[in-house]
Amino acid sequence: CKSVQWFLFNPVHKQNKQMDGGENIISLAEMFLVALSFAYFAKALSGSYMKSTITQLERRFDIPSYLIGVIDGSFEIGNLLVIAFVSYFGAKLHRPKIIAVGCVLMSIGTFIIALPHFIIGRYEFETSARRIVNSTLNVSPCAVGSSADLTQGGKLPEVPSNLSMWIYVLLGNVLRGIGETPVQPLGISYIDDFTTEENAALYVGCVQTISVVGPVFGYLLGSLCAKIYVDIGFVKMETITITPADARWVGAWWLGYLIAGVITLLSAIPFWFLPRSLPMSGPRGPEKCTPEQKSFMKHKYPADEHASFTEMAKDFFPTLRTLLGHPVYLTYLCVTIIQLNSLIGMVTYKPKYIEQHFRQSASKANFLMGVINIPAVALGMFSGGLLMKRLKLNIMGAARFAFGTSLIGYVLSLFFFAMSCENAKVAGVTLSYNRISYDKHPVFTACNSDCFCSASDWDPVCGENGITYVSPCLAGCTDSAGSGKNTVFSNCSCVGVAGNFTASTGQCPHKDDCDRMFPYFLALSVITSFIISLGGTPGYMLLIRCIKPQLKSLALGFHTLATRTLAGIPAPIYFGAIIDSTCLKWGQKRCGGIGACRIYNTTSYRIAYLGLTLSLRTISFIICIPGFILLSRQLKKEEENAINKALANGGTELEALRKEEFIISNSDQMSDNSTDRETRL
């Protein structure tokens, strides 16, 4: 192996060989492991923070969920552009430095995502509260036949559209995807190349575990920023009439991206000081290199043999054809693509599902994802790698283990359908003004017919009767007192409970049934996440071990390319489109057109979200059946080839022994004849 030969015959290393033993090797490998773990942490933190801000971005830029899916999928588009070539050519070049360049690009992309906040103006949320020009008197929501003193029929003055500003977020996410490309395929293959076989699975498990710990801090950062108002420091908070639980609230989404960008930039530093390759010891030492490993090292470092870029390029497509002709690899690829469609769609919109279905704030939803759900995944990933090492699972054992854990998690996930909450009681949306629930509900009725109201506004108030009204005007309120969050509307003709006709700002809680069900949802979510993630590391090692060593980097890179192209890009888009179809009340853009959704049909949301997730996993299980058959045939064929090779080698050795014996016997006979001749003489 070339790296070992270099280590043995290099004067500097040869001088210190006896003194250092294997300690230098271990320290360099551990340094790379720490550096790669930090890079995984940084990219996972920024990626999870993106997931935690989807509702904030929806409201800030007034865009629907499917468009948020396009923005989220743009990260995978960046990967798609370069990952195949980075994985193939990067394996032949200086891998640590390529990873360092990727981290720098990720950092720049993260800063670009935060850029729109410093370009666009202050956030102005929609409200139906009447603002009388040049007056400090309390607002009269229902101004009967009086529109002269109102600006544009009761709406706030129009401001320039910020429609194009989300393009910066998309472009920054594309650059993040390009920068993230070399981290996984080059980093994992580097570890697997230069560590002992018994430690490879454990090291990969450690890296994957750190990559899951990153989202813990990402979601916690998202929780913290969601509590802070988007324009903090530039507006007086006492003038803000909404709270973090309001559907119009936008947190300081930009702040987290600045923090994540700095962390990602720091993660690039260690890779600049790491060597291109590490010497191998133990079972992978020079005297113990198997023919496959020697062949792998020969393919891994053609640059040492002065191979030109053109020669490497010519070898790319034949190598790719060989890889895609591998039936087990192709089946594994199909299964993981379908399962990742389910996983990515579920994870992307899970905080939003918690917000909308269980009526939690964005801050609380992100906090729970970070401190409860993600640690269970991290523990499962690490435990899976540890179990694989302890049980010494072969390829088939790893495949069965991964399939079994996924199937158990699937069965447990079916219980999520039973954990439901009723729709929020909103007059004119989920029920009529006479409290009768049916499909179509008009927002105008006799009690507010005398008011000059807009049907498109969303400024909910909670009546004393426990019913939420779309706006104080549609509740028939004619007077108001107080300011900001403490505003109280009175003389609300649509409320009318025992002479009390008042309403307060914000939606009515109605969380009793959800509060009882929510702990069970969290507990089941933790259990299923842990069980499913147990199979993560064995499944990943199956990908590495089912192919020839010289195809390893390309296989990892193409796997990432395919899953991100066919799962990472489309899954958030069609999941978002299906979620949009369950919207009951859309927000209104100031420049016209619908904005972000304000309230969903929780029953339809639950069925669409969970049904699509589990349907995709069902399809993946069906494909696993021929996958096990193909894997069994491959292992049987490899075993037969090994036996035939051993017999062939044994026959060759036997023939050599016979020739040697023949030569010796001839030599002895010639010696005897010579002795007889001397005797006769």
TrEMBL record:
Mind listing the GO molecular function terms for this protein? sodium-independent organic anion transmembrane transporter activity
Record Pfam families:
Kazal_2 (PF07648), OATP (PF03137)
- Entry keyword set: Cell membrane, Disulfide bond, Glycoprotein, Ion transport, Lipid transport, Membrane, Transmembrane, Transmembrane helix, Transport
GO terms for biological process? lipid transport; monoatomic ion transport; sodium-independent organic anion transport
Q: What GO cellular-component annotations does this UniProt entry give?
A: basolateral plasma membrane
- Give residue ranges for domain Kazal-like: 441-496
User: Which catalytic reaction applies to this protein?
Assistant: L-thyroxine sulfate(out) = L-thyroxine sulfate(in); L-thyroxine(out) = L-thyroxine(in); 3,3',5'-triiodo-L-thyronine(out) = 3,3',5'-triiodo-L-thyronine(in)
Where in the cell is the protein located?
Cell membrane
Read off the InterPro entries from this record. Kazal_dom (IPR002350), Kazal_dom_sf (IPR036058), MFS_dom (IPR020846), MFS_trans_sf (IPR036259), OATP (IPR004156)
Q: Which family does it belong to?
A: Belongs to the organo anion transporter (TC 2.A.60) family.
Kindly provide the name given to this protein in its UniProt entry.
Answer: Solute carrier organic anion transporter family member
Gene encoding this chain? LOC118298917
